[in-house]
User: What shape does this take?
Amino acid sequence: MSVSVPRIQPQPFFADKNRAFWNLQSLGWAGAFLLRGSSTIANGQPLSSLVPVMISTVTGYSVTLLIAVMFRFLVKKRPIVTWGVSIVTVVAAAGLVAFIDAWVFSTQNRASETAGLQLFLGAFYLSMTLLGAWSALYYAINFYLTVEEQADQLLRLENQAANAQLAMLRYQLNPHFLFNTLNSISTLVLLKQTDRANAMLSRLSSFLRYTLVNEPTAQVTIEQEIETLKLYLEIEKMRFEDRLRPSFSIDPAVARARLPSLLLQPLVENAIKYAVTPKEEGAEIAVSAQPAGENVRIVVSDSGPGLNDGAMKPHIPMSEGTGVGLPNIRDRLIQAFGERQSFETRSTPGGFSVIIEIPLNMDETSKVAA
Assistant: This one.
């Protein structure tokens, strides 16, 4: 068996904002130096002419660090304050850089006939262009990061809301069977059938332990869901005995497919309430899971009266009872899979069926490296 080494995922460029700033700052001014230096050499200037370019680049690099400190303070202010002070800051910084550039050039080229004011204005135009572009890029990146943070925060809030709704739907599981089970246990105790009472209480404890241990938003495999469903049916079978006749047909290819926990229990409970209880001879309840292309098709059917006249209609929300029915299952499917699911009910004179299709998402723990 080979051991797979976990692949290290590359971090986003702006995951560390400080590191991203220093990287962009260094690369940007290095690029500016190369551009101005190559232009100087291409115009036939001697290598010594690169000294003013180098000094100008270092000056711009240092001044923009001071500007960044100012902008970091201004970005949280009102827009009129931010833009007004930012423009004044850029103009003042461009004047400082232009003065240093003009002084360095005049010191190195004392024989030059270029007037001081003309030299300063040329340097100021170049400095204003560079610092203006740097400032625009700084605010653009900060705006982008702010939008990304807001989008991430909105996504987290949406996920929290979805999880809260999933939890609410899970906690709506019909407690009707719990009341009936406790009443049955009480009756067995009164009849002094302690063995049956203990067996029912033990199965009820196991079932309730499962509902408490699993997270309300968790997903389990179909195999685990069926085992829990069998535990629930064992409890109900002690009440209905031979009137309740369950059967299961689970294709091994989808046994490890994942679905929301306790998704099928309300469907079976619905079938017991509307198919087994009204008929003296009881009814059959069949649960099947088969592959359907890239999906899993799960069918819960019963041999009850269906939607014939006079029969109770299981597709109607049980508002007069506990308020949990097929709409609960439909909402849970939408929350878990969005548009990648389907929910359908079918009724015939010989029974009622619920057909669910969900994506075939296999449990990762079932995959063993060869």
Q: What stands out?
A: Residues 1-6, 309-324, 366-370 have pLDDT under 50 and may be disordered.
